[in-house]
């Protein structure tokens, strides 16, 4: 009996697919990494089915790769060794909303916007915002963060408990509903960011927040990249509780105006958002404006209504799509380094210089409040020379980040693209990670070929 027929004994036939289009859709993500077809795609509806699938895969040494919606940027969901792609679109239920404890429990296929639509009915929201309407399972697997990290933290700061199917099909819980614990090893933090290499998530409990009384967005325009970065880091040093502070270069602003229909000043811009009471937000805005003027900010605009805020953040979040739209047939390699704030201005300036010297088109945007920024490099994946130059450019930026105590990936994860930097970044600690992987996945069925190669 072949693989597909055996899986049809676990799941109904209509939830086991070898359809060519379905296989193709599960062979790639949003990255530039080459696609690779799975042998079969399955669509479980509950934890019991997931456990049976994984147990079967382990017994038969078949690779298993979790799949959310394919919005990843480092190839985590690409089944490079074929096998079973587990699609969680049918596991998209919000299991429990607990306003009193500020907790919500969801299945992994729930998307970020779906979750916030339901939470909003209770006056709550989940703040982690990577831009894409990613699944919560995918966000937890890569330790996603995004524009609100400076105020609310990354996924690791907001996941309270995980239900995980291990390689042998057994199920564990990694945490509890308690806000803190000193009991045992921190398994939740181990699994968040593990990219499907240690287990498969079936339930996720998240910390949520009350919707702020007032939300005000804004833009601050500078004529100097270095001044904008220094203004942002100084704002954090003086203690203004900014909710978002995002850097967008002049070239990206020009593309926004062309494609998104905005009319922004075409210079280095910080996109901002303030959360809190009206009195506190008004005071924070005034402090920010005065401080930014000391660093050469020549335009400071705010958006108080929801339509204006939505338009502003859509323009920022759609930067990747805008780059692709203005370069049809090409892909974008996104660097993803994160550095200490004291080295941020130097790192951004260094990256800009490297882009200019490479001869490739590229722009820099970043979650500048937490030291994480992205150099988006436009390339033709079929052009060997462009791929070589882009890889060299990425390597230059990563090596600089590591030299100042930073990391090769702030939020996109290791996947396929950052494996080659793991030894340089972690040293002997990488051997500890490999040992953990060996204990938890002796047959190496769980997303093989990721993180460690």
UniProtKB/TrEMBL annotation:
<dbReference type="InterPro" id="IPR016171">
    <property type="entry name" value="Vanillyl_alc_oxidase_C-sub2"/>
</dbReference>
<keyword id="KW-0809">Transit peptide</keyword>
<dbReference type="GO" id="GO:1903457">
    <property type="term" value="P:lactate catabolic process"/>
</dbReference>
<dbReference type="GO" id="GO:0004458">
    <property type="term" value="F:D-lactate dehydrogenase (cytochrome) activity"/>
</dbReference>
<dbReference type="Pfam" id="PF01565">
    <property type="entry name" value="FAD_binding_4"/>
</dbReference>
<dbReference type="GO" id="GO:0071949">
    <property type="term" value="F:FAD binding"/>
</dbReference>
<feature type="domain" description="FAD-binding PCMH-type">
    <location>
        <begin position="34"/>
        <end position="211"/>
    </location>
</feature>
<dbReference type="Pfam" id="PF02913">
    <property type="entry name" value="FAD-oxidase_C"/>
</dbReference>
<keyword id="KW-0274">FAD</keyword>
<dbReference type="InterPro" id="IPR036318">
    <property type="entry name" value="FAD-bd_PCMH-like_sf"/>
</dbReference>
<keyword id="KW-0560">Oxidoreductase</keyword>
<dbReference type="InterPro" id="IPR006094">
    <property type="entry name" value="Oxid_FAD_bind_N"/>
</dbReference>
<dbReference type="GO" id="GO:0008720">
    <property type="term" value="F:D-lactate dehydrogenase (NAD+) activity"/>
</dbReference>
<keyword id="KW-0285">Flavoprotein</keyword>
<dbReference type="InterPro" id="IPR016164">
    <property type="entry name" value="FAD-linked_Oxase-like_C"/>
</dbReference>
<comment type="similarity">
    <text>Belongs to the FAD-binding oxidoreductase/transferase type 4 family.</text>
</comment>
<dbReference type="InterPro" id="IPR016169">
    <property type="entry name" value="FAD-bd_PCMH_sub2"/>
</dbReference>
<protein>
    <recommendedName>
        <fullName>D-lactate dehydrogenase (cytochrome)</fullName>
        <ecNumber>1.1.2.4</ecNumber>
    </recommendedName>
</protein>
<dbReference type="InterPro" id="IPR004113">
    <property type="entry name" value="FAD-bd_oxidored_4_C"/>
</dbReference>
<dbReference type="InterPro" id="IPR016166">
    <property type="entry name" value="FAD-bd_PCMH"/>
</dbReference>
């Amino acid at each position: 009996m072949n693989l597909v027929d055996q899986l049809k004994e676990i799941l109904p036939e209509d939830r086991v697919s070898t359809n060519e289009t379905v296989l193709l859709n599960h062979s790639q993500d949003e990255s530039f990494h080459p696609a690779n077809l799975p042998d079969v795609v399955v669509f479980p509806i509950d934890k019991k089915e997931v456990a049976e699938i994984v147990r079967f895969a382990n017994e038969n040494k078949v690779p298993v790769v979790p799949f959310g919606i394919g919005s990843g940027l480092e190839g985590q969901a690409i089944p490079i060794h074929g096998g079973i792609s587990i699609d969680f679109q049918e596991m998209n239920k919000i299991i429990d909303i607990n306003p009193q404890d500020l907790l919500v429990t969801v299945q992994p296929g729930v998307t970020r916007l779906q979750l916030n639509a339901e939470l909003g009915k209770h006056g709550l929201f989940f703040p982690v915002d990577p831009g894409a309407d990613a699944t919560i399972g995918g966000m937890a697997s890569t330790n996603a963060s995004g524009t609100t990290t400076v105020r609310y933290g990354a996924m690791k700061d907001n996941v309270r408990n995980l239900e995980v199917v291990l390689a042998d099909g057994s199920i564990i819980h990694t945490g509890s509903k308690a806000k803190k614990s000193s009991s045992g090893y921190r398994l939740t933090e181990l699994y968040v960011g593990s990219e499907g290499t240690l287990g498969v998530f079936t339930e996720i409990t998240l910390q949520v927040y009350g919707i702020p009384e007032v939300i005000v967005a804004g833009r601050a325009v500078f004529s100097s990249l270095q001044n904008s970065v220094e203004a942002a880091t100084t704002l954090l040093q003086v203690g203004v509780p900014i909710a978002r502070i995002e850097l967008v270069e002049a070239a990206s602003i020009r593309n926004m105006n062309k494609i998104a229909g905005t009319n922004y000043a075409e210079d280095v811009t910080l996109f901002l958002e303030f959360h809190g009471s009206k009195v506190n937000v008004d005071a924070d805005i005034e402090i920010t404006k005065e401080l930014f003027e000391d660093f050469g900010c020549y335009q400071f605009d705010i958006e108080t209504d929801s339509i204006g805020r939505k338009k502003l953040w859509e323009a920022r979040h759609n930067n990747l799509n805008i780059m692709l739209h203005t370069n049809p047939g090409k892909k974008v390699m996104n660097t993803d380094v994160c550095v200490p704030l004291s080295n941020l201005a130097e790192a951004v300036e260094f990256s800009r210089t490297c882009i200019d010297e490479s001869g490739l088109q590229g722009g820099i945007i970043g979650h500048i409040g937490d030291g994480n920024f992205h150099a988006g490099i436009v390339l033709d994946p079929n052009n060997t020379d462009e791929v070589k130059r882009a890889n060299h450019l990425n390597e230059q930026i990563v090596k600089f980040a590591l030299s100042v105590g930073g990391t090769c990936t702030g939020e996109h994860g290791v996947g396929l693209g950052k494996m080659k930097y793991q030894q340089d970044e972690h040293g002997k600690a990488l051997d500890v990670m490999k040992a953990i992987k060996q204990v938890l996945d002796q047959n190496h069925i769980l997303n093989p070929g990721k993180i460690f190669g």
